[in-house]
DNA sequence: GTCTATAAGATGATAGAC
DNA sequence: GTCTATCATCTTATAGAC
């Protein structure tokens, strides 16, 4: 049985195809419910090619994970470069997360929902990854500049983005009545109120 | 090889022992990294007993899940009965979640972090479960009474509890510098500010 | 680099004695 | 109700031809 007729897909393109297929299956069924043979079948390539490019299943997941985290980080970096004050940055970050969840729900699901500890045991928790660290830095700067109330940084960071992330989960779980974008402005406003320095907070 | 010498643990006690063991392993290694044989070995019972009491692995996970959700819901119900105004209820709910995460981290990890969809495919998402619905109701009532700003309910609910839940994740991932309790008051305050009706919001 | 066929091991589940 | 022994299947991974 020929898997990849005339080997029309080869090299880097084959690698990309396998990654895309893995993302779809991992995000839909989970890492453990997806066998290498599932990916092989759906991608229409041979199991030998998959092992040639990635070595083993865990390394395939890790390649995917690194790729997605890097793309997410690039998006956040862009926001941080574009905006300068803390409110605008928080708004931009939340808007970016929403857009990403709308346009690339599978990627978002894999980054946000997957329990990476269970299949990438040597990986630090997601919350220690670059994108999440960037969010924390944004808030830390905001505190330093007096735009955000003085608070413990983990509290401020989770207060700022926890609501949005939680709403992202609801969206990905398909339990929201309205499209995600409908909730954007209110989510940004609530996030900022949670941490904003108000006149009454000044000493 | 005798597993349960003289069958000292039997009936309901055996069932409980299996559930406790399953919780520890599922929460530490994940559902898919835990085999029935692992649970059998650690609990010191026979595989036959496990299948007698639960039928299959998925049903074991479901029994555990239902049990934990019910306990969590009971805790939230207690808070709702004790407090009447929305701010006190939100504070109480967050305090309860923190206490539960401190005293029963394995249970919290299984309820909050596990991807139940992947091993309980017929179960609705956690966010639709009783405890989470209760939180949403609390906020909805707060809006109705004018204690919370008029907002989309999903936004208000995630804004109120998303930060706390996110911080719980950080705690369970072991990335917080301080003990969780240290962050309680600030988390409650930030949660309330995110949704509170202020004089300036009144028309 | 890609392919097919196969190996080696683990897993969920069952049968049947006590 | 609990036990041991065993099964059938699936999974990851490798070998070796092209």
Quick recap of the structure?
Chain A contains ten helices and no strands. Chain A has helices at residues 11-29, 36-43, 47-54, 57-82, 86-103, 105-112, 116-119, 130-144, 153-172, 184-195.
Q: Which shape of chain A, going by the Cα principal axes?
A: elongated
- Succession of helices and strands of chain A: HHHHHHHHHH
CATH T-level fold name of the largest domain in chain A = Tetracycline Repressor, domain 2
Low-confidence stretches of chain A: none
Mean pLDDT value of chain A? 96
Q: Per CATH, which architecture of the largest domain in chain A?
A: Orthogonal Bundle
Describe this structure in words.
Chains A, B: Pfam families: TetR_N (PF00440). The structure is a homodimer of 203-residue chains. The first copy, chain A, contains ten helices and no strands. By secondary structure, the first copy, chain A, is mainly α. Chain A has two domains: 1-55, Homeodomain-like (Arc Repressor Mutant, subunit A); 65-201, Orthogonal Bundle (Tetracycline Repressor, domain 2), CATH 1.10.357. At the A-B interface, helix 9 and helix 10 of A face helix 9 and helix 10 of B. Chain A binds a DNA duplex (18 and 18 nucleotides) through residues 1-4, 7, 10-11, 14, 35-37, 45-49, 51-53, 56-57.
